[in-house]
Amino acid sequence: MKKFINDPADVVVEALQGVALAHPDRLRVDLERQLVLRVGGPVPGKVGLLSGGGAGHEPLHSGFVGPGMLDAACCGQVFTSPVPDQILAAAIAVDAGAGVLQIVKNYTGDVLNFEMAAELAEGEGVRVRTVLVADDVAVEDSLFTAGRRGVGATVLVEKIVGAAAEDGLDLDACTALGEQVAGASRSMGIALGSCTVPAAGRPTVDLGPDEIEIGVGIHGEPGRRRQALAPARELAAQLVEPVVEDLELRRGERALVFLNGLGGTPQLELYLMFHEVHRQLKERGVDVVRSLVGSFLTSLDMAGCSLTLLRPDEPMLRWWDAPVDTPALRW
Amino acid sequence: MKKFINDPADVVVEALQGVALAHPDRLRVDLERQLVLRVGGPVPGKVGLLSGGGAGHEPLHSGFVGPGMLDAACCGQVFTSPVPDQILAAAIAVDAGAGVLQIVKNYTGDVLNFEMAAELAEGEGVRVRTVLVADDVAVEDSLFTAGRRGVGATVLVEKIVGAAAEDGLDLDACTALGEQVAGASRSMGIALGSCTVPAAGRPTVDLGPDEIEIGVGIHGEPGRRRQALAPARELAAQLVEPVVEDLELRRGERALVFLNGLGGTPQLELYLMFHEVHRQLKERGVDVVRSLVGSFLTSLDMAGCSLTLLRPDEPMLRWWDAPVDTPALRW
User: In the predicted model, what is the mean pLDDT of chain A?
Assistant: First the structure.
C-alpha cells in the first residue's frame, strides 16, 4: 500500500486538520468529534441540514458544507459510520429552532446510528427527520446493507434540499422533497480497480488484470458480476440500461445526469464516459437537461465511475440551479 | 491497462465531446481543432488569454476556460504538444484587438509550437506575447525539456493573469505580471505510482511495490531519486525543503500554497498532506495567506502530489481573490 499517510489510525483527523486550514473562512472543524460545520451557522429559522458517514468518500460529505447545501457533516473513520454521540452533537449544533433533517445513505451501521442520534436529539428538544437514500440498483442486499445501497443520489438530495432549506422550506417540506429526490433517482457503478483501506493495507477487491466489477459498491462491495474489460461504449450501456429501466425513464422524458468518478479515474475518462452516456440517453429519447461530471462521491483511490439519473420536476431543477457555495460544489 | 476508453486514438476528441455536452452554457468546443473556447468571447478590449498543451493533465487547461481565467485552451493528444495550426486558430479566435498572451509550460515541443504559432499569428496581424512557466525545482533538464519543467505554477499564472486581463490590464502589463508570478513560484512533485498513457497501454514508470519517485515530472519523467515509501510528514518535508530553499523563502514571509493531486490520489490524502505542509511552513516562520488543495494539474491516473509555493505581492493576492467562473475553478 502506497499512500500519503502517517499512522492509519490518524488519517481522518489529520485530513480534517488540513480541511480546517484550507477553508478557515467557510468551515469550522470540531476535531474531537470529527464534525465539519458551516461558519456563521446555524442560520436562524432555517432547517438544519446534516449528513455524514464513513470517511473515504470525499468530497462527500464535508466538501458539501456551506450556504445552499449542508450545515454540518459528521465524519466516521474510513468506511465506518459516525457514532450517535457525534451525530447528536452535530444535530444540536445545527438546530436553529426549525428542526434538523438528516440525510443518510442506506448502510445498516449508518441507519442505526443516525436513528439512535435522532432519538437522543428529540430527548434534547430537537425535532429530527431523516431522509434515507437507497438508489443503487445493482443489488438488493449487500455486505453492509439491508435493501439497496445509498450512493450518488445523496449528492443530488443534499444539493436540492440544501437550496430548498435556504429558501425557507420547513422541516416537513424539506423531508418530503428529500424523499421525492431520493425516490426519483437511480444509480449504478463500475470498478476497474480496487480501493485500498489504509487500516487494511491491501486492496479490498481482488480483480484480475483485465477484470472489472459491474455494480460495485462504494466500499468495494460485490456488484452484479465480474467480467472482462470492454470498450467505454459497452460499459456505458451496462450502466445506462439498468438505471434507465429501473427508473422507468421513457422516451420524451428529461433527466439530470450525474457521472461520478470513484477516486482513481482521470477527468479525461469521465468526460469520455459522459459523452457515451449522453449519446445513449439521446438514442433512448431521454433529454439531458442538467449534468454534473466529476469525482464527488469517491471510494478512496478506486478506479471506476458511477452513473446517477434523476427524473427532475420543475422545483427540483430550480433548486438544483440555485446558488451553492461549498468547497466542492459552487455556482 | 484498464481505462474507460474506446480506441486510444480517439480519447481526446471523445473526452472533448463530453466537455462540450457538460458545459454548453460556458464552453464552445471546436472538435476538429481541439480547442475549448469561452462562450461569448472574445471580449472587446480585453487581452486574449490562451494556454494549452498535451491532454492528460485535466482540468488543466480546458477546465480553466471562462471569465476571470483563460479565453481558450488548445488540447494536444495525450502528453503531446498541440500543433502550430491549432494554436494559431485559437490566437485568432481570442484576439479582440488587445493582443494575445500565451501561457506555455516549459516543454521543448510546446515551446517550439507556441513560438511558431506566435510568428504565424503576428503575420496575420495579431500581437502575441508569451509567458513561459518553468517552476519545477526537481531537475535542471529532463526527458522533454531543456531547463526546468513547467508544472503547478501554470495554474497560478492562469488565475492571476486571468483576473488582471479581466480588469483591463494591457498586453505588456499582463505579460510582465505573468512573468512575475512564474518567477515567484516554485514546485516539486512525488509519485507513489505511475500513470498509464492509453496509447502505450502500460505504466510509464516502473516503480517497485514500496518505491516512490521524488521530483517526478507530470509525464512520469524521472525526478531526483527513487526511495522507499515514508510517512506523509517525511514526504512533505522532502517537498517543502527544496521548494522553500529554491524560492529563498525566509522567516516572516508569506506564501500562497497550492497542494495538487496528480490524478490517482484521494482528497483525504491531499488534505492530510496539506496539513503537514502547512505545519512545516509555520515552523519555518512562513505565513500561509492563501491555499488551493485539489487535483488541478494531473498526470492521468498517477498517484502522487505536487507542492507549489508562490511568494505573492498585494496585486497578485487581489487578482487571486478576484471572481473566477470556470468548470474547475470558481469563486
Answer: 97
Beta strands A185-191 and B304-310, pairing class: unpaired
**Among A303, A294, A95, residue whose Cα is nearest residue A193:** A303
Q: Round to whole Å and give the CA distance between B300 and B59.
A: 10
End-to-end Cα distance, chain A: 37
What is the average per-residue pLDDT within B253-265?
98
Chain A from 44 to 83: CB within 8 A of any B CB = 55-56, 58-59, 63, 78
Q: Per residue in A135-188, pLDDT tens? A: 999 998 887 888 999 999 999 999 999 999 999 999 999 999 999 999 999 999
Question: Could you tell me the pLDDT band of residue B142, with boundaries at 50, 70 and 90?
Answer: confident
Residue B212 in contact with partner chain A when CB distance is under 8 A: yes
Asked whether the beta carbons of residue A63 and residue B273 sit closer than 8 angstroms, the reply is no
- Its CATH architecture, for the domain B10-184, is 3-Layer(aba) Sandwich (3.40)
Nearest-Å Rg of the Cα atoms of chain A is 19
**CA B40 to each of CA A211, A249, B25, B93: distance values in angstroms, whole numbers, following the listed order:** 45, 35, 10, 11
Q: Which residue of A has its CA nearest to B275?
A: A18
Contacts of B291 in chain A (CB under 8 A): 21-22
Q: What are the extents of the domains in chain A?
A: 10-184, 185-320
Q: What is the pLDDT of residues A285-330, one digit of tens each?
A: 999 999 999 999 999 999 999 999 999 999 999 999 999 999 999 9
Q: B240-258, pLDDT tens digit by residue?
A: 999 999 999 999 999 999 9
Strands (E) located in A155-210: 185-191
Q: Which residues partner with A196 through β-bridges?
A: A203
pTM of the predicted model, to two decimals? Answer: 0.97
- Alpha-carbon gap, residue A279 to A285, rounded angstroms: 10
Nearest residue on chain B to A13, alpha-carbon basis: B272
Q: What ipTM does the predicted assembly reach?
A: 0.97
Other residues' Cβ atoms within 10 Å of the Cβ of residue B208: 10
Side-chain-side CA neighbours of A75 within 13 Å: the count stands at 32
Residue in A231, A274, A301 nearest the CB of B21:
A274
Which superfamily, per CATH, for B185-320? Dihydroxyacetone kinase; domain 2 (3.30.1180.20)
Least CB–CB distance from A2: residue in B278, B288, B303: B303
Question: Rounded to whole angstroms, how far apart are CA atoms A282 and B12?
Answer: 22
Cβ separation B266–A212 shorter than 8 A: no
